[in-house]
């Protein structure tokens, strides 16, 4: 007999795969019969086509129904949901603890997620970000994030463009642009007085560029008013951001004819040429307005180039270094110039150690730490759910046993338990959303971010939140689902409620609890270490006084001298000085050597201050007493520099006094030949001028009796009424200065600002450990209350036999005390290691002490014991007759 | 849940009035099944439908209708013989139940009543 023609195999297999067993035989039979009928009538092609179409027509829920016709009245999925909802409503404390835990935990994780997303997407949505590079100049031992102009401050507009002209002439380069934000280290800072329509405004955050069209090409700004082509055509144009336009022209700015309006900034007229959207927070640059002018008011500029697709950046930079003398005459002969390098745009935010960086960079170690903490919190949530459900399911075992007896398969039980977990997790969605919405502004303030609360509306955020909750639900329900699904029904009936799942001490629940305790102790200890380091930084002897000192800017020595005379008449003013305010970021270093040695050092920090500043800061300097005897200036070096130089020379540091030191020996000049000679008048103790993150620097300090020039002032006062003193100082200031407003700050605050990032991470870490502790304690509370419930009878019998309430509480506490001890022992090396890693960022730091971990462990243990005792108290105090009478 | 309650009511009440929620396609298929008498299964019903109604219908649509009718208790089924064309697979043969026949009769009666009331045809 000839075999029948057969329909397409894959379609047939697909049918077998999705179709329920009960329905398969008849459906497949019908389809095969139809196939054969059509095959003879219309031929193979049509029959195949119709067969496939038919198979897909069966691909619908009707054919999936995996239960037999007899059970059709029992819609299983409905039942799962019904049981899940009943359980959620019935076990209110369990549901409450879980909901609260999941909500707090998932919200915390979401916030960390938003933060990490913000940091990791820096500059990434700039089009073709991977083809954009920033040039960096290496000079002495430092890398400058900006390039200089060939004649520095004296550069004519054409000279300023020399580098760009060269770059634009290269085939590999698509565009090249310069810009300088006014708030950058090379931008001069300050405020701008903008006048128009007889009104005056103060503005900050200008972005100067002399190559606007290229700037727009590399960093496209979204124009809301005007067009980029016209805005950057020609110079003396000003382009505002949306929020600045709103501030200056009111909410209806977009209805006004602003384009072409004349704005005067300090005697120069600019034409308003456009309004662009605000700069998003995750850009490495920022501005309130762009000034497009022929000449950038600085000695250099941040320089960017966009390469053509497929160009090797290393080759381009190599070519630039080969031709560098054309741009900077004598560059290659200058032995201090170490060549030009480039950093890719997306890497700028993660490149540490460049000088004059525009925004604080992200430290990958911090980001990793936060991601880890988020993971820890997730683990705690999962563990909580798992532990709680294991404890709770103990008295639902009979239900599951009954289900199995009635024919439920293991996967039915698993599916039901998973449904409950996922449903519970999804219930948190609105609460999480609310928490994030409320917390985001505070979080922004803490972390100095600009995450918009609008983010929480974004479908992507909601989707991420949903996904996180779903995964959390699935993971949380996994263990109970698998464990109870597999357990034989007889054992489900036999087990009394409340007993540990297994008799061993290190059963699944206790392992999870130990892990939780460990993470809690670890987080607590690390927070403590961070706090200790911050205190250390705050109170460390810096080698000068920082209390009771304010500082402010002053325009020139003449005004300084006048103001100083006026201030010294005030009784509460102790001393006044010019220049040398500590606590700045590191700046450019210079080379120096002893006159009679060959070795040149390149890490010198030169400083100028007048004798008044030295006295205000209380820096001890015996050599400086010569200033009071009429000497004009004194040159001293600090101990770090002295030791380095003495080692080279082979003498003791003290013997350097009276010798000649030469700064910038490579600089050929008419006056001294090479460099500038200084006779060392004395050696002073090291003082911490910069952040304690850096080791002691070599300071070359020139102290003068009267300052030749002055740009900042230090004033020390002894007073209980600072506001009165400051208004007196301000009044005196206004008698000598009429243009610049009085803008002061406390030195202590400035020094604290050096550690803003560290303090922020400390606070975040502290808050997250708090969240972790609350979550862990909540989980524990749930477990203990279920254990106590399950052990009611046992406790009753113990009491009848004479046990006291105290001894019963101890039976509860014993186990957790032991777990906590184990957890502390494991956490000890881990947290000390992690703390040491964090402390590596500081040159001056505390040594992590082991007692901190022990104390954290003890503290956590006390909390746990307190909680366990409160939870178990009811069981321990109950009259035995109440629990025993049923038998 | 509401659906299962309704089905429950449909099955356990003998009142024919409550069974009258019968769609046009359901009625046709039910009629075809009664007509074919013990030869009604998915493929054959779809063939008969095409033959008598002059329209084609997919086998899955027939299956869906028949399973609905079965849920309503209007037809019942048993596994019939296997044939070579079906690769040795058995057919599920459908038959109208007493309730099904009653519903059809009721529909016919009520229709007839209406027919009789149309003036032109009298």
TrEMBL record, chain A:
Residues 372-486, 767-876 form the ABC3 transporter permease C-terminal domain. The chain crosses the membrane at residues 96-116, 365-394, 415-440, 460-485, 506-531, 763-789, 816-838, 850-870. Residues 95-321 form the MacB-like periplasmic core domain. Keywords: Cell membrane, Membrane, Transmembrane, Transmembrane helix. It is found in: Cell membrane. GO terms for cellular component: plasma membrane. It holds the Pfam family MacB_PCD. The keyword 4Fe-4S does not apply. The keyword Magnesium does not apply. It comes from the Bacteria. One of its GO terms (molecular function) is transmembrane transporter activity. Its main location: membrane. It is a multi-pass membrane protein. InterPro entries: ABC3_permease_C, MacB_PCD, Macrolide_Exporter_MacB, Permease_put_prefix. This is FtsX-like permease family protein. It comes from Flavilitoribacter nigricans (strain ATCC 23147 / DSM 23189 / NBRC 102662 / NCIMB 1420 / SS-2) (Lewinella nigricans).
């Amino acid at each position: 007999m000839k075999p029948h023609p057969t329909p397409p195999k894959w379609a047939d297999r697909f049918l077998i795969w999705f179709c329920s067993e009960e329905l398969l035989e008849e459906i497949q039979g019908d389809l095969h019969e139809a196939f054969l009928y059509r095959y003879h009538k219309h031929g193979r092609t049509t029959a195949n086509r119709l067969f496939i179409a038919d198979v897909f027509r069966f691909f619908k829920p009707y054919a999936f129904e995996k239960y037999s016709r007899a059970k059709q009245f029992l819609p299983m999925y409905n039942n799962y949901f019904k049981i899940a909802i009943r359980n959620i409503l019935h076990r209110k404390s369990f549901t409450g603890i879980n909901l609260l835990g999941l909500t707090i935990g998932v919200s915390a994780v979401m916030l960390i997620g938003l933060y990490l997303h913000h940091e990791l997407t820096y500059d990434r949505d700039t089009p073709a970000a991977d083809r954009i590079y920033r040039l960096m100049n290496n000079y002495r031992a430092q890398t400058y994030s900006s390039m200089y102009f060939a004649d520095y401050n004296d550069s004519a507009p054409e000279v300023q463009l020399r580098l760009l002209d060269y770059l634009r002439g290269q085939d590999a380069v698509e565009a090249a642009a310069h810009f300088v934000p006014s708030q950058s280290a090379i931008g001069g800072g300050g405020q701008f007085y903008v006048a128009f329509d007889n009104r005056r405004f103060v503005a900050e955050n200008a972005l100067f560029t002399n190559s606007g069209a290229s700037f727009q090409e590399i960093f496209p700004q979204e124009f809301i008013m005007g067009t980029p082509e016209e805005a950057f055509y020609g110079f003396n144009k000003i382009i505002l951001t949306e929020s600045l336009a709103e501030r200056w022209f009111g909410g209806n700015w977009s209805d006004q004819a602003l384009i072409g309006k004349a704005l005067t900034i300090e005697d120069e007229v600019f034409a308003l040429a456009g309004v662009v959207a605000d700069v998003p927070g995750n850009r490495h640059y920022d501005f309130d307005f762009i000034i497009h002018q022929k000449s950038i008011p600085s000695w250099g500029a941040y320089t960017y180039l966009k390469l053509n697709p497929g160009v090797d950046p290393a080759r381009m930079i190599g070519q630039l270094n080969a031709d560098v003398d054309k741009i900077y005459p004598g560059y290659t002969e200058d032995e201090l110039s170490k060549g030009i390098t480039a950093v890719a745009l997306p890497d700028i935010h993660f490149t540490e150690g460049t000088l004059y960086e525009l925004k604080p960079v992200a430290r990958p170690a911090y980001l990793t730490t936060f991601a880890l903490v988020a993971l820890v919190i997730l683990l705690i949530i999962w563990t909580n759910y798992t532990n709680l459900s294991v404890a709770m399911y103990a008295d639902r075992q009979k239900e599951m046993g009954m289900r199995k007896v009635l024919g439920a398969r293991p996967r039915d039980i698993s599916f039901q338990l998973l449904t409950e977990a996922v449903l519970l997790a999804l219930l948190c969605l609105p609460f999480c959303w609310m928490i994030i919405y409320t917390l985001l502004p505070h979080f922004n303030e803490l972390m100095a971010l600009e995450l918009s609360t609008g983010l929480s509306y974004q479908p992507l955020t909601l989707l991420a939140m949903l996904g996180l909750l779903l995964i959390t639900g699935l993971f949380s329900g996994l263990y109970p689902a698998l464990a109870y699904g597999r357990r034989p029904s007889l054992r489900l009936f036999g087990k009394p409620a409340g007993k540990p799942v297994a008799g061993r001490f290190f059963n699944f629940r206790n392992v999870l609890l130990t892990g939780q305790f460990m993470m809690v102790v670890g987080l607590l200890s690390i927070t403590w270490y961070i706090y200790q380091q911050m205190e250390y930084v705050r109170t460390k002897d810096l080698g000068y006084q920082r209390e009771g000192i304010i500082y402010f800017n002053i325009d020139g020595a003449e005004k300084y001298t006048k103001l100083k005379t006026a201030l010294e008449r005030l009784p509460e003013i102790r001393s006044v000085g010019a220049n040398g305010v500590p606590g700045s970021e590191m700046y450019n270093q210079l080379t120096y050597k002893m006159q009679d040695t060959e070795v040149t050092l390149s890490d010198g920090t030169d400083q100028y201050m007048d004798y008044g500043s030295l006295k205000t800061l209380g820096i001890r300097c015996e050599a400086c007493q010569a200033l009071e005897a009429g000497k004009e200036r004194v040159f001293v070096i600090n101990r770090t520099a002295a030791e380095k130089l003495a080692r080279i020379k082979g003498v003791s540091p003290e013997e350097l006094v009276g010798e000649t030191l030469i700064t910038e020996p490579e600089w050929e000049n008419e006056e001294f030949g090479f460099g500038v000679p200084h006779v060392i008048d004395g050696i002073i103790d090291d003082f911490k001028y910069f952040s304690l993150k850096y080791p002691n620097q070599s300071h070359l300090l020139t102290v003068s009796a009267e300052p030749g020039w002055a740009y900042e002032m230090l004033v020390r006062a002894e007073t209980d009424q600072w506001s009165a003193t400051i208004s007196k100082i301000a009044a005196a200031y206004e008698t000598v200065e009429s243009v610049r407003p009085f803008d002061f700050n406390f030195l202590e605050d400035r020094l604290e600002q050096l550690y803003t990032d560290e303090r922020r991470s400390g606070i975040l870490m502290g808050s997250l450990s708090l969240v972790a502790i609350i979550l862990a304690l909540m989980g524990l509370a749930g477990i203990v209350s279920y254990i106590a419930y399950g052990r009611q009878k046992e406790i009753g019998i113990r009491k009848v036999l004479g046990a006291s309430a105290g001894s019963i509480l101890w039976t509860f506490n014993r186990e957790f005390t032991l777990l906590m001890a184990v957890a502390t022992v494991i956490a000890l090396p881990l947290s000390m290691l992690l703390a040491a890693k964090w402390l590596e960022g500081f040159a001056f730091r505390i040594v992590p002490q082991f007692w901190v971990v022990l104390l954290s462990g003890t503290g956590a243990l006390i909390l746990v014991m307190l909680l366990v005792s409160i939870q178990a108290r009811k069981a321990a105090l109950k009259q035995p007759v109440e629990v025993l009478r049923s038998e | 849940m509401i659906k299962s309650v309704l089905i429950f009511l449909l099955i356990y009440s003998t009142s024919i009035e409550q069974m009258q929620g019968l769609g046009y396609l359901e009625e046709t298929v039910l009629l075809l099944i009664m007509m074919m008498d013990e030869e009604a299964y998915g493929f054959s019903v779809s063939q008969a439908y095409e033959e008598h109604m002059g329209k084609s219908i997919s086998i899955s649509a027939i299956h869906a209708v028949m399973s609905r009718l079965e849920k309503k208790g209007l037809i019942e089924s048993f596994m019939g013989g296997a044939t070579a064309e079906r690769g040795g697979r058995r057919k599920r043969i459908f038959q109208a139940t007493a309730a099904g026949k009653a519903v059809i009769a009721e529909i016919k009666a009520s229709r007839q009543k209406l027919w009789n009331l149309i003036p032109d045809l009298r």
